[in-house]
Amino acid sequence: MERDSQSADNEPSELAEAWRILEDMPPMGEDTIEQSIDGTAAVQLVEEDEGDQPMTQEELRESIEQFKRDQLERAPVEVSFWADDIKSIELNFAKQLRRSEERGEALISEKEFLIWESDYRDDWERIQGQVRLAHLSMAEEAKAEAPMVVYTREEDLRTTVEAQAGVFFAKRARELAQAGGGEAVQEFTRAVDKHLDFKYMGPDEVRDYGYEDYERGRTIAHNNAIKALNKLNQVADNLGTTRFTPRDFWTSEVQQQTPDMSRRMRFDRDIVEEYYALAFSAEVKRREAKQRRDMMFY
């Protein structure tokens, strides 16, 4: 957009500042504009015929408001687009794991895994940018992100990027502890241990505990494990070490849940369980073996 620089000096300061912002903006594509609208004025530029006069202050303000409205309406669509891309990443990642397994090779190298994880993380950051931009509620976010919730079987969940990140838990935990985040690692380990106590509790123990108290306690323990994993990621972000998973997870503590929210919460719960089953595989196998031995007497 061409404009006489002298005329800008004679305009009200607010309008002159808006024009300065417009002139500093990078070229924009026809379909999307990657520009925050929180605190920064931005306008969808359109072709102008020769002889068009510069916008008035009121016209510019209305253009900015219309741009904001358009972006807010488009946010859920953008979220769904990137959620669908995450689904594609996960499906292709699972195929590669299965092919490697069929050839008798190691499931995946750390170097290669980091590429997959980075692609996932990039998409997730785009999603969260749109969620923040439009101030989406949990219900709206869950609906828009529904395409990424595609797995229903345990073996499918285990082949996700998120779950496979558990293979590298020990290395990332050491890195975080060395940076001063050891307390968060211990907190997560205790939370997982508590959930395993409930998961592998025998029938007699469940009966003595009380079924309702057992179910309530197991749910609380699972939510605490999710929160402890989220905290690990937050501490890692703060200390500049590698995150433990590409994204954070939802607990089931919200009382008012839409079907999309409930499905997402169950998905997150199961993903976290698969994550720590790989992170603490030796302990999980030990408890499974003990449970099998104990069940022989029933």
Index terms:
298 residues, mainly alpha, 12 helices, globular, disordered N terminus
* Poorly predicted tracts of residues: 1-15, 25-51
Structural class: mainly alpha
Instruction: Output the radius of gyration.
Output: 25 Å
What's the rounded overall pLDDT mean? Answer: 83
Order of helices and strands: HHHHHHHHHHHH
Q: What can be said about the biggest beta sheet?
A: none
Which percent bin holds the helix content? 55-70%
Describe this structure in words.
The chain is mostly helical and 298 residues long. Among the domains are: 5-70, no CATH class; 153-242 and 255-298, no CATH class. It is 69% helix and 0% strand. It has 12 helices and no strands. The chain has helices spanning 5-9, 13-24, 57-102, 110-134, 138-144, 154-158, 161-164, 169-199, 203-209, 211-239, 259-279, 281-295. α3 (57-102) packs across α5 (138-144) and α8 packs antiparallel against α10 (211-239). The radius of gyration is 25 Å and the shape is globular. The termini are far apart. Mean pLDDT is 83; it is low at 1-15 and 25-51.
In brief:
By secondary structure, this protein is mainly alpha-helical. The chain has helices spanning 5-9, 13-24, 57-102, 110-134, 138-144, 154-158, 161-164, 169-199, 203-209, 211-239, 259-279, 281-295. Helix 3 runs antiparallel to helix 4 (110-134) and helix 3 packs across helix 5 (138-144).
